Amino acid sequence: MEKLMSPEEVRKVHSVENLPENDPPSVAAGSVEDEEKEARIALRKADMRILPLLTVLYVFSFMDRSNIGNAKVAGMNKDLNLTGTQYNLALTVFFFPYSLLEVPSNVILKLTRPSRWIAALVISWGTVLTLQGIVKNYEQLIVTRVFLGITEAGFFPAATYLLTTWYCRWEYQTRVAIFFSAASLAGGFSGLLAYGIQHMEGVAGLGGWRWIFILEGIMTVLIGTILPWTLPDSPAVAKFLTPREKELIQQRLQRDSGTSEGKVATEEAFQWRYLRAALLDYKIYLGIIMFWGNTICIYAFSFAMPTIIQQLGYSAANAQLLTIPVYFVGALATYLFARLADHKKTRWPFVVIPFCISAVGFIGLLSIPHPKLPGLTYAMLFFVPSGLYPAVIGCISWISNNLAPTWKRAVGMALLMSIGNLGGAVGANIFLESQAPRYPLGYGLSLAVVCAGVGAAMVLRVVVTRINTAREAMSDDEIRAKYSHDQLLRMGDSSPFYRYVK
């Protein structure tokens, strides 16, 4: 019988950065050009195995939490006799368990195989969504939304952390953008699916809006069942890589660890001090303000956009279809800004500029004398995801690039998203039916938090620049006289050798 491994042994085998702490792994000697060519081949293999799966999963993740907006347009509120307040509460309750469970989920992720943990999450939320299609009243809808928040909580922090275990800092944002742009595509895909599915009205005696939940839930479960065999856990155990390719990827990660010495602890066991370090890191809280600039606005926007378009004079079916071009432009902008950020090797401009683009959209939507000028209103909608999606990817990449060692990064990224996603509970309640079609609270508050995100990004840029300047003023001899080798390894991003991305 096969011997079962302890949690610590599992963690070490599947540790993404399963490298010696004292020296980077050796790769057979060769020219720099040859090694880079081999690295590109290995990364292309990783891209083909990881990114398509994460993209599909995030499409379903975002679609499954936001398709309630499509269900509303398709008749859910009428069939369940929901008031506007009850509908907003059904949106809101999702975010509390979703936010609270992200840190515990990433702790579990670090202690087990990522593919199995993510598969369990996907199958669970798909099952809950399917059951949401058979609810009979408001109370049952609330229960399913709570459990949807519980089961979806761990996926996004797990996926973004998993990518840090494969890609260097200036390769990371482009990869996150590829799968995160699925959030934009999910909105359009959800609208397209909803347009078709709502025509199943009356099939098996069920309303069309019920079939939106049931069919999308079943598709989610089916995808989740294949993940243990298809989603790679780490470079160290990836069967599609040769031994040399595994070693090369690991060496590149070690060299790109963020220190001038190229070394940080990568096999550290969990200690409570890593949780404490993340909780007390003010840079993460600046990131949370930037994250709120996205979550408050984008969840409000996703839930409300089908209704906003319908109020321009379109039928419910056409309103679903007209969401697609808006989300497609958002997806394209996300990828383009990420490529620029990685190419320029900087983060802050690619947070600030996109936020300014979305601010233009909100200013326009506040200024238009609704319901007049429906064409201009529709045009202004394009500015919102085109700015919000690239900005949040820049924020996530910036914060993750500046967290070390790996346990602090796992906890810190989950903390960023945990508190940051509470913004969704706010966003779910700012587009009020009583304010239609002008929505001054929705557009006005969105503009305010976007401006706060710009301010937080500028403050973080100044902070990390000053820290890097102070560290560069210290000599190597001065640093080594003060700290031992092991201390420097375990200090992570607090090490005087560490240089923050700005």
UniProtKB/TrEMBL annotation:
It is found in: Membrane. Residues 50-470 form the Major facilitator superfamily (MFS) profile domain. It is a multi-pass membrane protein. Its main location: membrane. GO terms for molecular function: transmembrane transporter activity. Pfam families: MFS_1. The chain crosses the membrane at residues 50-68, 88-109, 116-135, 141-164, 176-197, 209-231, 284-305, 317-338, 350-370, 376-399, 411-431, 443-464. GO terms for cellular component: membrane. Residues 1-15 have a biased composition (Basic and acidic residues). This is Major facilitator superfamily (MFS) profile domain-containing protein. It comes from Clonostachys byssicola.
